[in-house]
Structures are given as structure tokens and as C-alpha cells.
Amino acid sequence: MLLYLKYIFAKWPIEIIDRKKQGFGAPVKEWLKNPKTAKEFTDIIFNSHIRERGFLDYDFVQKLVAAHQAGKADNTFRIWTLLTLSLWYDRKKSWNF
Predict the structure, then answer these.
(1) pLDDT per position in the chain (97 positions), as tens?
(2) Contact assessment for residue 29 and residue 76, using Cβ atoms and an 8 Å cutoff
């Protein structure tokens, strides 16, 4: 096995073999522009139990989503943050301490 790996690595540039570990990003921006996945994500945000708390201005959230989908603004980070917050809150609410 080791001999096989040495053969494979011998064909790769040293810059690739010796570089630091790096992650990869999920295509969130594209998911949010796709009508089907965007609807699933926004449904999670708008149907979350966090809405009952009144923390967020959902009219503003709708404008963020619409501007993103129209290509007028890149609100990927904001929408993704709202999605993860909504999922976290719903999960937390279901915990019984």
C-alpha cells in the first residue's frame, strides 16, 4: 500500500502534497438562489418557534431573501445565520432539561 501511495504522490506537484489542510465551502449561495431549496430554507426560518419570541423583523427577513434571489444583494451569510439560528432554537426548545 505504501509503495502505491508513493507512486501516486510522485505524480502530484509538491505544492499540493505539502500544503496545509483546507476545508471546502458548501454552495449555500446557490442553494439560496434555487427556488426549491430557498423555499425549504425560508420555510424553516419563517415557521421556527423563535418567531413566537418576537426577536426578528420577518418583513425585513423577507426583503433579504427576495433581494438575494433577485441577485440585487449577496445575503448568503445573513440568511444562513437566520437558518442556523432557527434550527438551533427549535432543537433547543425540544430539549427537556
Answers:
(1) 666 777 777 777 878 777 888 888 889 888 888 889 999 999 999 999 999 999 899 999 999 989 998 899 999 999 999 999 999 999 988 776 4
(2) yes
